[in-house]
């Protein structure tokens, strides 16, 4: 049994980071929120006003004394915290799963230092069954992601292809490809495909279709698995975060559930 709580640091205090901070401050036995890293410290101070126990507010470097760092940054900043955290042998919980695909050398770093990379389910479901299915031969794993124009706006692929999602009047497939390609094309919108790929067949053998649908107000994901031991389809409709509609409201809860697992004597699911 642990003698002291697990010291948690949060990298990023955006739409997901704020929710995770609030839930940790509400109190979870065995977990202590000790530090947060934010790009705008004054804004962070305002966002944490009223907390029962105010964590330290600083930069990514200020998370270096924590046991677990929860990465909730834009994809472009992922490596700035992932690498130092793993180099010092700590645990990294990853929200930007798509960014991890371009930094798989970090697995070797973790192996060398004793660090750990943990990718929570985030906004996707069924990773338990996907992992189990992959213990037997698997024919295919695919994901369809359907989002409103507001949840897709700003993706580099849209600018590259000259696609104005706000002008669409009907559901339109705007991208088909592998999870690896999607992570570069839609770094803030296809973390679900990256997590699915890491759980299953890998980023080059996991196919994703992205549909822009002006009629939906949720982030909708459907995964389909064909394997020797089971065939299944899982579907989820997630309420977007008002502050950042690219991210849904399930992910912060998934991270909290993942952190609870680290200190719980009982673990449920794969
Ligand atoms: N795994 C999954 O299923 C899901 C993953 N995600 C991913 O999770 C990540 C976080 O999402 P979300 O919270 O919605 O994103 P936000 O953009 O709302 O928040 C990111 C925060 O990080 C801050 N930031 C940027 N650079 C730094 C830095 N160097 N040091 C400290 N803070 C920094 C940003 O500040 P500023 O705005 O001032 O730059 C912003 O406040 C994203 O990569 C997103 O794509 C999202 C949904 C589901
Ligand atoms: O649905 C969500 O909350 C976010 C999402 O698709 C992703 O990041 O892959």
From TrEMBL:
Source organism of the structure: Gluconacetobacter azotocaptans
Entry's family note: Belongs to the L-aspartate dehydrogenase family.
Catalytic activity line of the entry: L-aspartate + NAD(+) + H2O = oxaloacetate + NH4(+) + NADH + H(+); L-aspartate + NADP(+) + H2O = oxaloacetate + NH4(+) + NADPH + H(+)
EC number: 1.4.1.21
Listed PANTHER family: ASPARTATE DEHYDROGENASE DOMAIN-CONTAINING PROTEIN (PTHR31873:SF6), L-ASPARTATE DEHYDROGENASE-RELATED (PTHR31873)
UniProt keyword annotations, A-Z: NAD, NADP, Oxidoreductase, Pyridine nucleotide biosynthesis
Functional note: Specifically catalyzes the NAD or NADP-dependent dehydrogenation of L-aspartate to iminoaspartate.
Active site per database record: 221
Residue span, Aspartate/homoserine dehydrogenase NAD-binding domain: 12-120
Ranges for domain Aspartate dehydrogenase: 169-256
Pfam families: Asp_DH_C (PF01958), NAD_binding_3 (PF03447)
Keyword match NAD: yes
Name of the protein described by the UniProt record: L-aspartate dehydrogenase
Pathway annotation: Cofactor biosynthesis; NAD(+) biosynthesis; iminoaspartate from L-aspartate (dehydrogenase route): step 1/1
Alphabetical list of NCBIfam families matching this protein: PRK13302.1, PRK13303.1-3
Binding site for NAD(+): 123, 191
Note: The iminoaspartate product is unstable in aqueous solution and can decompose to oxaloacetate and ammonia.
């Amino acid at each position: 049994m642990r003698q002291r709580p697990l010291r948690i640091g949060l990298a990023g205090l955006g739409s997901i980071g704020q929710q995770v901070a609030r839930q940790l401050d509400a109190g979870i036995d065995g977990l202590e929120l000790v530090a947060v890293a934010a790009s705008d410290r004054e804004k962070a101070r305002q966002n944490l006003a009223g907390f029962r126990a105010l964590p330290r507010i600083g930069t990514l470097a200020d998370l270096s004394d924590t046991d677990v760092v929860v990465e909730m940054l834009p994809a472009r900043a992922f490596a700035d915290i992932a690498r130092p955290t793993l180099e010092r042998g700590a645990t990294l919980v990853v929200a930007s799963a798509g960014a991890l695909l371009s930094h798989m050398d970090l697995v070797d770093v973790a192996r060398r230092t004793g660090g750990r990379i943990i990718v929570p389910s985030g906004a996707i479901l069924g990773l338990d069954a996907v992992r189990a299915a992959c213990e037997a031969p698997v024919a295919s794993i695919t994901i369809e992601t359907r989002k409103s124009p507001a949840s897709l706006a700003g993706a580099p692929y849209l600018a590259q292809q000259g696609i104005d999602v706000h002008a669409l009047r009907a559901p339109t497939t705007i991208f088909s490809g592998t999870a690896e390609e999607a992570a570069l094309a839609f770094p803030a919108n296809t973390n679900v495909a990256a997590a699915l790929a890491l759980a299953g067949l890998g980023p080059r053998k996991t196919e994703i279709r992205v549909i822009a649908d002006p009629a939906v107000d949720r982030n909708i994901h459907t995964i389909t698995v064909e394997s020797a031991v089971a065939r299944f389809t899982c579907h989820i409709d997630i309420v977007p975060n008002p502050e950042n509609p690219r991210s849904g409201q399930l992910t912060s809860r998934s991270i909290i559930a993942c952190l609870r697992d680290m200190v719980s004597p009982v673990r449920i699911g794969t």
